[in-house]
């Protein structure tokens, strides 16, 4: 076996070091060209229309000074599968050609969050979506589809992560399907007396949702209305009157609710009609539903605002009058 001399061994070692150094330089250059070398000085939005070709998008990116080299972009796309996907993309500052190609090839489209608040009616939700600039299309349709015939109680209020450019009807459909999932999650739940169906649970939950924003109060408010239903006492819930007065919009736009309004002839007016209104008066969250399905065990029949965002509850009308008088004094101070 031939043994290398120390001199030859040192020479080979030097060549190996030199080769590694060259390799490191090459790797650095490649990394720089594909990931660091970027003309993008600030975040930019790019829209790739459906059916757009790689050549067409490449030319657009090059003319828009988003990529430095068409050839490098072609190569990067090819290495990421060879295709690009339609959509709107947020290209970050300093994005190299590989990053841009990877985003377009993998469909890493720009997304944003849209929140549907609890307690809003379908009309209010549609009006809100119309004002969202990054959505497209109308909120109404005349096709034979569930999303074209939405009613209060059909939509689940939540925060939805969606792609920019999503249609407004698609958002409504997403929220409608989520409500179906929520309903299924409560399958098997026992309905409190005297409720007999999910629809009745949703109707009462919608009243509870409108009466209090506080989660801890919802089971108590639900108990008040259930106690009233059990003794055939009218619910006398102001939100149902507002729903009737506003043609299902649910918003008085700053106008006060007057005593004369409580006499409106409408099936949703729970001051004039016994029992629950025909349908939910808003779209509800999980807490309101849980509040109805698991109400507090109370003997309360009345409640009034306490001036601190909550309510005072009472078992009889005499107690309620005292609480109501206290609320009137609070309102006088607030008005001052």
Summarize it:
The protein is mainly alpha-helical.
Please give a structural write-up.
This protein is mainly α. It has 3 domains: 33-106, Endolytic murein transglycosylase (Dna Ligase, domain 1), CATH 3.30.1490.480; 111-185, no CATH class; 198-335, no CATH class. It contains 11 helices and 6 strands. The protein has helices at 6-36, 54-63, 70-79, 97-106, 122-130, 168-185, 198-211, 218-230, 238-245, 286-293, 317-335; strands at residues 44-48, 87-91, 111-115, 159-163, 302-305, 311-314. The strands form 3 sheets. It has a two-stranded antiparallel sheet with strand order 1-2. A two-stranded antiparallel sheet has the order 3-4. The termini are far apart.
Number of strands: 6
- What fraction of the residues are assigned to beta strands by DSSP? 5-15%
State the share of residues found in helices, binned by percent: 40-55%
Write down the overall geometry.
elongated
Q: How would a textbook summarize the main sheet?
A: 2 strands, antiparallel
Tally of individual helices:
11
Residue runs with pLDDT of under 50 for 5 or more positions:
25-36
Total domain count: 3
Give the spatial strand order of the biggest sheet: 1-2
How far apart, in Å, are the first and last alpha carbons? 105 Å
Question: Whole-number radius of gyration?
Answer: 32 Å
Secondary-structure element series: HEHHEHEHEHHHHHEEH
Overall average residue pLDDT: 89
SS-based structural class?
mainly alpha
């Amino acid at each position: 076996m031939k043994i290398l001399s120390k001199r030859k061994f040192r020479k080979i070692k030097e060549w190996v070091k030199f080769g590694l150094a060259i390799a490191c330089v090459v790797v650095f250059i490649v990394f720089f060209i594909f990931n660091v070398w970027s003309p993008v000085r600030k975040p930019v939005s790019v829209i790739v229309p459906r059916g757009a070709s790689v050549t067409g998008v490449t030319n657009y990116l090059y003319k828009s000074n988003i990529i430095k080299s068409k050839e490098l972009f072609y190569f990067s796309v090819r290495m990421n599968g060879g295709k690009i996907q339609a959509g709107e993309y947020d290209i970050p500052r300093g994005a190299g050609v590989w990053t841009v190609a990877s985003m377009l090839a993998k469909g890493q489209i720009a997304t944003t969050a849209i929140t549907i608040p609890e307690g809003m009616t379908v009309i209010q939700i549609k009006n809100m979506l119309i004002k969202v600039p990054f959505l497209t299309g109308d909120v109404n349709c005349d096709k034979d589809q569930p999303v074209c015939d939405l009613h209060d109680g059909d939509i689940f209020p939540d925060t939805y992560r969606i792609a920019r450019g999503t249609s407004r009807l698609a958002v409504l459909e997403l929220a409608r399907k989520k409500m179906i999932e929520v309903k299924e999650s409560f399958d098997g739940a026992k309905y409190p007396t005297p409720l007999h169906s999910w629809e009745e649970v949703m109707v009462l939950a919608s009243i509870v949702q409108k009466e209090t924003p506080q989660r801890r109060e919802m089971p108590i408010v639900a108990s008040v209305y259930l106690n009233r239903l059990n003794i055939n006492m009218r619910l006398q819930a102001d939100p149902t009157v507002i729903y009737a007065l506003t043609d299902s919009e649910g918003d008085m736009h700053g106008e006060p609710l007057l005593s004369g309004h409580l006499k409106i002839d409408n099936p949703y007016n729970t001051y004039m009609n016994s029992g629950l209104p025909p349908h939910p008066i808003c779209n509800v969250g999980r807490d309101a539903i849980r509040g109805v399905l698991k109400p507090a065990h109370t003997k309360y029949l009345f409640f009034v605002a306490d001036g601190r965002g909550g309510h005072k509850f009472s078992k009889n009308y005499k107690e309620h009058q005292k609480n109501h008088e206290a609320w009137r004094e609070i309102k006088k101070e607030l008005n001052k």
